[in-house]
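A quick aside before the break. I want you to see a complete sequence-to-structure record at least once, exactly as it would be stored in a machine-readable document. Don't worry about memorizing anything.
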Amino acid sequence: MYQIEVVPIDPHRWRAYIVRVPGVPTALMPFYGPTPDQAAGSLLEWLTRAHARAANGGKADAHKN
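That is the input. The structure line, written in tokens, reads:
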């Protein structure tokens, strides 16, 4: 499970990122969107795809192009 934080960058731009846990390194870049929900949604979609790929032995999903 991940904790996602979303912060405003300007009135029409938001940044979403995984909250750092002390002692756990992270190299994940932030995701941006025009609303908090869209920024967090983009990050969540990426995490879902990354988890599916890892569960598939690192192979891309054969159903996606």
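Two observations worth writing down. The first helix runs from residue 36 to 55. Strands lie at 4-10, 13-18, 31-33. We'll return to this after the break.
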